């Protein structure tokens, strides 16, 4: 395989788990310009949320901030909170596109989503 072909390979992982008794699937795909992460409890994409990571310098300290925008689907406050929280667990600087279809959004579900996503990481 040539060097240029190996750079074009898209890395993808997938997995599933029961989170608070609900079957949850995750698919993580690492494209050259962004991550695409599907987390679903409905077996469909759901709401598409774009997350970008920025850095703010305050008092000489660099703090990450996350900008979210719903591209398609229901624009609810909890969608932004979940997307920001999940993005904060991913050690990349490129944008992340989440497809979220969740039956529950409780703190215990969010914790389970974080573990599932990190376990099946593609970054």
Report how far apart the termini are.
Answer: 22 Å
Which architecture does the CATH hierarchy give at level 2?
2-Layer Sandwich
> Helical element count?
3
Indicate the multimeric state: single chain
Number of strands: 6
Sheet/helix structural class: alpha+beta
Low-confidence stretches: none
**Can you list the strand order of the major beta sheet?**
1-2-3-6-4-5
The domain count comes to 1
H-E string = HEEEEEHEH
CATH-assigned fold name: Ribosomal Protein S5, domain 2
Mean pLDDT: 93
% residues in beta strands:
35-45%
Radius of gyration: 15 Å
Shape: globular
Please write the CATH class name.
Answer: Alpha Beta
Fraction of residues in helices?
A: 10-25%
What profile does the largest beta sheet have?
A: 6 strands, mixed
Note down, in words, how this protein is organized.
This protein is an alpha+beta fold and 123 residues long. It has a single domain (3-119), classed as 2-Layer Sandwich (Ribosomal Protein S5, domain 2), CATH 3.30.230. It has three helices and six strands; from the N terminus they run H-E-E-E-E-E-H-E-H. It has helices spanning 3-7, 77-87, 107-119, and strands at 11-19, 22-30, 35-40, 47-58, 61-72, 96-101. A hairpin with a 2-residue loop joins strand 1 (11-19) and strand 2 (22-30). This is Proteasome assembly chaperone 3.
């Amino acid at each position: 395989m040539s060097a240029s072909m190996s750079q074009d390979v898209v890395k993808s992982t997938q997995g599933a788990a029961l989170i608070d008794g609900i079957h949850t699937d995750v698919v993580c795909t690492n494209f050259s310009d962004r991550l695409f992460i599907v987390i679903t409890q409905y077996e469909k994409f759901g709401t598409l949320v774009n997350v970008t990571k920025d850095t703010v310098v305050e008092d000489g300290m660099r703090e990450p901030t996350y900008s979210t925008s719903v591209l398609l689907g229901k624009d609810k406050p909890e969608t932004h909170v979940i997307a920001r929280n999940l993005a904060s667990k991913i050690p990349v600087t490129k944008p992340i596109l989440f497809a979220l279809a969740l039956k529950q959004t409780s703190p215990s579900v969010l914790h389970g989503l974080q573990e599932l996503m990190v376990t099946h990481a593609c970054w």
